[in-house]
Design brief:
42% of the residues lie in helices and 12% in strands. It is built from five helices and four strands. It has helices spanning 20-30, 34-42, 62-76, 90-102, 110-125; strands at residues 5-9, 12-16, 78-81, 84-87. It has a four-stranded antiparallel sheet with strand order 1-2-3-4. The protein is globular and about 40 Å long.
Length: 152
């Protein structure tokens, strides 16, 4: 069971993982437990497709979505940009969030941010097994044998 997820974001594909330190920071910044944050983030989401989202039932907070992504980047600590592996420090995570979540240029939609945060939390709380039927190289997530920490 895997508890991190590799997703397209910003200028590449990044690993998102919430370890104990990131969960503690997220709870502190959001003034809520991880279960409450997860519940608010998933409210109004009934799947991953656009037709499975009920925006009027959403209970997420922008500040929480932003922080989930930032902490996920810090915990994941890596990505691939233009075919090159990159390391993600807290400084780089802040830069990515500033440029692609907070700025007016290059900003992702709120719906896309909501889906990204939900995917990060879902991987942490529910875990998942990468699709074994995916085309080789189409799912960069690495299957594990019982490990729940990201591979270096």
């Amino acid at each position: 069971m895997q508890t991190w997820v590799d997703l397209k974001f910003a200028d590449g594909e990044y690993r998102f993982f919430l370890g104990p330190a990131q969960i503690a920071e997220l709870e502190k910044k959001c003034d809520a437990g991880i279960g409450r944050i997860y519940g608010r983030t998933l409210a109004g989401r009934y799947g991953t497709g656009d037709d499975e989202v009920m925006p009027d039932q959403g209970d997420y907070r922008f500040s929480e979505l932003r922080e989930i992504v930032r902490q996920g980047l810090i915990g994941g600590a890596q990505g691939v940009v233009d075919g090159d592996e990159v390391q993600v420090s807290s400084i780089r995570a802040n830069e990515l969030v500033e440029r692609y979540v907070l700025s007016r240029r290059g900003r992702i939609t709120l719906r896309a941010l909501w889906a990204l945060a939900a995917s990060i939390l879902f991987a942490l709380i529910e875990g998942y097994d990468p699709d074994p039927k995916a085309e080789p190289g189409s799912d960069p997530a690495t299957p594990t044998t019982g490990s729940t920490t990201p591979e270096p």
